[in-house]
């Protein structure tokens, strides 16, 4: 279900002429857009367009070249990932299950590493409430969970720190259609719990359907942005990403 007031909410995150990349070269250049608080925004685009590079820039794990990233109006582009996490930015990178030989319980303890004392168990209990499936598998090795379950575990670990902005890179990659639907339902549910979600997805249709806003990136630049319903119905997007045929 989409929130009707998403367009009028103040931005939680803003990109202002941002350029970021690796080594000597920016990959994403002159990128400007804003993400309203309480919204779900999906970024689509061809392989190599710079989608992951943009998400990594919000968390601060690649090289900054110029422009600004504002979180709640505050410039964050010079902050470390740890400092950004403390501000409320959580990042689930592309790929999943960093600790396959540890149990679900051990992974969840690890996800609470920024917390102390009783806050640790409170955070674990909170994410087990969100994802009861994990509670039934606490002693299972994370690597033995299904792909979809591993994705949920990774997301749960990031959510333990209590972020307000959740960055998800290809959460449905490699999942069965049924598990993809579950991941999208989970994302919609997280928004209902007050999170703002910025997601990169190859399943353009599934992700845009639960989103307020769509962003299309090509060659490191913003190609198009608008309400998700408008992006889904754009003939160029239909042909390039949604299996439509040229008119
Ligand atoms: N660590 C890195 N060092 C150098 N170049 C990189 C690095 N990571 C990505 N790149 C380059 O940056 C460009 C954009 O990559 P990015 O991963 O952002 O694309 P993407 O849009 O996420 O693609 P995909 O849909 O395949 O995940 C690519 O040309 C890639 O080779
Ligand atoms: Mg990527």
Account of the protein in words:
The structure is a single chain. The radius of gyration is 18 Å and the shape is globular. It starts with 10 loop residues before the first strand and ends in a 6-residue tail after the last helix. Helix 7 links the parallel strand 7 and strand 8. Helix 3 (104-111) runs parallel beside helix 6 (147-159) and helix 6 packs parallel to helix 7 (177-192). The strands form two sheets. Strands 6-7-8-3-9-10 form a six-stranded mixed beta sheet, sandwiched between helices. The model has no long low-confidence stretch (mean pLDDT 92). The protein is built from ten helices and ten strands. The chain has a single domain (6-241), classed as Rossmann fold, CATH 3.40.50.300. It is α/β, with parallel strands linked by helices. Helix content is 36%, strand content 27%. Bound molecules: adenosine-5'-triphosphate and magnesium ion. Adenosine-5'-triphosphate binds next to helix 1.
**Alpha-carbon distance between the two ends:** 31 Å
- State the order of secondary-structure elements, H for helix, E for strand: EEEHEEHEHHHHEHEHEEHH
CATH superfamily: P-loop containing nucleotide triphosphate hydrolases
Radius of gyration: 18 Å
Count the domains.
1
Mean pLDDT across all amino acids: 92
Query: Helical proportion?
Result: 25-40%
Q: Briefly note the structural class of the backbone.
A: alpha/beta
Largest sheet descriptor: 6 strands, mixed
Morphology call: globular
In DSSP terms (H or I, runs of 4 or more residues), the helix count works out at 10
Query: What's the CATH class, please?
Result: Alpha Beta
Strand order of the largest sheet: 6-7-8-3-9-10
Low-confidence stretches: none
